[in-house]
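tokens incoming
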């Protein structure tokens, strides 16, 4: 299992994120995955980090497909491939109706078909082809990258629900997961394997990257409340709500969706049971974090990407120190090899 870090973290400005990346590199971090919602531009930050963290693999986990054109995605990926010496992974996803529709003013429908077409034109462009494409949701004509990547850029697909998971298995180089508990990993990865099998691919060649939101403490109730505050809105969005129903949280998901539709954020938080909070994040003392990270590796995750969920930079650094320290213990057991990068 490879171990990586999410950047940027909540409450960090861009220069602080680069400083944290430099500090993380000094203690052995060689894997950084950049999330993008409505704060920093992942491509720009990856470029800055690449100069502060040599010999590091960078990936996006993830950028939304429709907030940029495929031309912009392809140019950014090619640029970052050059800046990182060929160690860049383009992680892309359909995102949510809030980000794409409400914020971006783009049509949010037919998600699997849209992603299939985005992946096709991006793969062709990054492989150096002149792209002429007329699909059902996307058109692109006479485009060829004028500055080529260094080697082949892997394209990973963010996926939660069965259709997108099968698409990842069929056409992507890897799958990026978020808020998937280890207890649901067999169900989720089963859909990826089904997609790979239908396309005649070896599912063992598809890397599984899982973003894990983590906090180290000895106050379970405070931890659960923090998860409710941070992620209640996620559970209400269409894709995540459907996902939690699929993996066995139907009652919670129904109550959350109803409360969110009424604008009752307190009811959204109240509907997030302790079991659901545990599914969305890894919280607890060092021993609990250690055991759950072991469980993710056993369940089939190749790369764990840690996201410390605390809005204070000093506390974020302490959480990372705690987690990195407990992983030394994991290595010592001989039961689970953990590497801090590639």
């Amino acid at each position: 299992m490879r171990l990586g870090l999410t950047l940027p973290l909540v409450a960090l400005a861009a220069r602080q994120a680069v400083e944290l990346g430099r500090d993380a590199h000094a203690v052995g971090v060689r894997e950084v995955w950049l999330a993008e919602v409505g704060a920093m531009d992942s491509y720009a930050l990856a470029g800055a980090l690449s100069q502060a963290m040599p010999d590091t693999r960078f990936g996006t986990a993830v950028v939304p497909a429709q907030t940029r054109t495929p031309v912009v995605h392809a140019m950014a990926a090619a640029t970052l491939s050059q800046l990182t010496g060929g160690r860049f992974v383009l992680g892309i996803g359909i995102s949510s109706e809030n980000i794409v529709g409400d914020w971006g003013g783009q049509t949010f429908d037919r998600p699997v078909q849209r992603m299939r077409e985005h992946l096709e034109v991006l793969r062709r462009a990054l492989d150096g082809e002149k792209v002429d494409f007329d699909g059902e949701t996307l058109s692109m004509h006479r485009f060829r990258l004028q500055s080529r990547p260094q080697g082949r850029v892997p394209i990973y697909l963010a996926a939660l629900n069965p259709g997108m998971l099968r698409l990842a298995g069929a056409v992507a180089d890897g799958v990026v997961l978020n808020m998937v508990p280890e207890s649901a990993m067999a169900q989720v990865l089963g859909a990826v394997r089904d997609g790979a099998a239908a396309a005649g691919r070896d599912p063992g060649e598809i890397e599984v990257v899982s973003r894990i939101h983590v906090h180290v403490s000895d106050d379970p109730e405070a931890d659960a409340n923090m998860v409710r505050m941070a992620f209640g809105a996620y559970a209400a969005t269409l894709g995540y709500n459907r996902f939690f129903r699929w993996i066995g949280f139907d009652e919670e998901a129904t109550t959350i969706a109803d409360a969110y539709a009424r604008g009752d954020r307190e009811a959204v938080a109240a509907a997030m049971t302790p079991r659901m909070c545990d599914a969305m994040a890894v919280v607890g003392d060092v021993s609990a974090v250690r055991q759950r990270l072991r469980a993710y590796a056993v369940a089939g995750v190749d790369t764990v990407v840690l996201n410390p969920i605390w809005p204070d930079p000093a506390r974020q650094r302490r959480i990372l120190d705690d987690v990195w320290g407990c992983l030394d213990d994991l290595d010592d057991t001989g039961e689970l090899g953990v590497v801090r990068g590639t």
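note: The domain at 2-212+290-333 is CATH 3.20.20.30 (TIM Barrel).
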